[in-house]
TrEMBL record:
This is Epoxide hydrolase family protein. Belongs to the peptidase S33 family. GO terms for molecular function: epoxide hydrolase activity. GO terms for biological process: epoxide metabolic process. SUPFAM superfamilies: alpha/beta-Hydrolases. It comes from the Bacteria. The keyword Hydrolase applies. The keyword RNA-binding does not apply. Keywords: Aromatic hydrocarbons catabolism, Hydrolase. It comes from Streptomyces sp. R21.
Length: 389
């Protein structure tokens, strides 16, 4: 990693969005040029016009960014430069001196906002009805190119490079022994961190797992025979079809073209992200805000909009596309998997490249577990790391 030691400084960070930026957002929402829509198609063609208009109206007149900005600023935040790019992260030290450091990694279209409801219970279980022996010191970075870690300024920020940056971040913070947890891209980066720094990472816990945990393409007869009834049912119900992979096809091939619309139109950015919250939250809920608080949804969108990072976040797909579907190098780091209602990890696949020692299945929650079922995720993270401390 070609870092100059002069750039290793860790600086406190505070979110202070100029009022002019908020006024610009409101003006753009007021002047939105809305598309037409076929009658009666619901979500089949994408995010429905009526739903986006309603949510955009609330964003314009009911949502209070300053309230959520102040809440975010109550959490200690920092920035540092790693491998030529700025990295923003939350760093919450537990009051328990023997707490285990834990690095939490979000995915797309998420952000550090995903973890707000688990910070207290994980870092200070004593204050949340838990056992103080389960406490963690938390490091929660924004992925390079996302939010206040963006935009990136050069190509090559793929999963392996991010994992190396995370190892450097933890070294820089003085953590020689720590755990890793993540969902979506975080469930790809966290296992890779275990491969990059196996002597430091005591365990890897994932949810919303994909590469290395789920089948790419048809299963062999042998693998199909090894499926549990639950896995077989899940794959039959939730296997991604062509219609659900359009976002990835675009972001992995033409992220720059996509960026013009999403960076110029808040309604476009909102619709692009909210569609995934509709498709990936617990299948039993009708609307995204039935699974995740509406203000929390919009705060997450705001971290993309205010930083203008829709395009640089999408570039993670472009940079990583060449490795999709390939088997990861095997990791001997103890690994735990939590499958929530919308997750598709299959144990026989996961065990090929991961040392799986813990497997949990939940009927509640979904792809965004830290937002949808923070209590279940907290409990499973505690349980998995308990014997690894």
């Amino acid at each position: 990693m070609a870092d100059n030691s002069a750039n290793h400084e860790i600086r406190p960070f505070r979110i202070e969005i100029p009022q002019a930026r908020l006024d610009d957002l409101h003006t753009r929402l007021d002047l939105t040029r809305w598309p037409d829509e076929l009658p009666g198609v619901g979500w089949e063609y994408g995010t429905p016009l009526s739903y986006v208009r309603d949510l955009a109206a609330y964003w314009r007149s009911g949502y209070d960014w300053r309230k959520h900005e102040a809440a975010l600023n109550e959490i200690p935040q920092y920035v540092t430069e790693i491998d030529g790019t700025g990295v923003h992260f939350l760093h919450v030290r537990s009051p328990e001196p023997d707490a285990l450091p834990l690095l939490l990694t979000h995915g797309w279209p998420g952000s550090v906002v995903e973890f707000l409801d688990v910070i207290g219970p994980l870092s200070d279980p004593r204050a949340h009805g838990g056992d103080p022996a389960d406490a963690f010191h938390l490091v929660i970075p924004s992925l390079p190119g996302f939010g206040f870690s963006g935009p990136t300024r050069e190509r090559g920020w793929n999963v392996a490079r991010i994992a190396r940056a995370w190892a450097e971040l933890m070294r820089r913070l003085g953590y020689e022994r720590y755990g890793a947890q993540g969902g979506d891209w975080g469930a790809v980066i966290s296992p890779e961190l275990g491969r990059v720094a196996p002597d430091a990472v005591v365990g890897v816990h994932v949810n919303a797992a994909s590469a290395g945990f789920t089948p790419f393409g048809p299963l062999s007869a042998e693998d199909a025979a090894a499926l549990s009834d639950r896995e077989r049912e899940r794959l039959a119900q939730q296997q991604f079809g062509r219609d659900q992979l359009g976002y990835a096809a675009i972001q992995s091939t033409r992220p720059q073209t996509l960026a013009y619309g999403l960076t110029d139109s808040p309604a476009g950015q909102l619709a692009w992200i909210i569609e995934k919250f509709h498709e990936w939250t617990n299948p039993s809920v009708e609307l995204p805000e039935d699974a995740v608080d509406r203000d929390r949804l919009l705060t997450n969108v705001m971290l993309y909009w205010l930083t203008g990072t829709a395009g640089s976040a999408a570039r993670l797909y472009y940079e990583s596309a060449s490795t999709w579907g390939g088997p990861p190098r095997r990791s001997e780091v103890p690994t735990g998997v939590a499958n929530f209602a919308a997750d598709r990890a299959v144990r026989v696949i996961a065990e090929r490249s991961n040392s799986v020692v813990h497997w949990a299945e939940f009927d509640r929650g979904g792809h965004f577990a830290a937002l949808e079922a923070p209590d279940l995720l907290t409990g499973d993270v505690r349980e998995f790391f308990r014997p690894l401390r």
